[in-house]
Amino acid sequence: MAVLAWFALILVFFRLDLAHGLYFHMGETEKKCFIEEIPDETMVIGKYKTQLFDEHTGQFLPSSPGIGMHVEVKDPNMKVILSKYYASEGRFTFTSHSPGEHLICLHSNSTRWSLWAGGKLRIHLDIQVGEHANDYQEIAAKDKTNRAPASDSSIVRPSGTDQQRAKLSEVPRGAV
């Protein structure tokens, strides 16, 4: 019995080490950037959540409606590949087109929250790259809804010239 308890405890600690997300604090005018090494043609998904600090309770509020994030992503050549405003909680996606270090920057879209939040915002961020970025259950669900029954009009038939080429390719060499 003691062996099972130790095994369970080890699994809990091991699982805690595998956490991929992080959180950080930032002020009203701050911009936080992360460098991520990304192969070419790779999907990246960033999931985030913002929380305002409440000076009265001394804690971060569970959600922050009205506060949004601006996300900007630059490729290794410093070309902007994503620049968009988002809500206080959500996700952003992009696909890399060249391998190397990509710069992912976040900053608040508001200058009003510092007056009533003590100037502190907590951002939870989880960046998933490549295979880990794919939500296979979501993809399968979308795939099922996007499928339409095949009709005769959707079948591609060769044109007259394609049919002639097909016949010519069936002719033995030297016969033409």
From TrEMBL:
Keyword annotations from UniProtKB, A to Z: Membrane, Signal, Transmembrane, Transmembrane helix
Domain of life: Eukaryota
Keyword Transferase: no
Extent of Polar residues compositional bias: 151-163
Main location, first listed in the record: membrane
Any single Gene Ontology cellular-component annotation: membrane
Domain GOLD: 31-129
A Pfam match: EMP24_GP25L
Subcellular compartments: Membrane
This protein's name: Transmembrane emp24 domain-containing protein 4
Native source species: Desmophyllum pertusum
Phylogenetic lineage: Eukaryota, Metazoa, Cnidaria, Anthozoa, Hexacorallia
Gene name of the encoded protein: TMED4_1
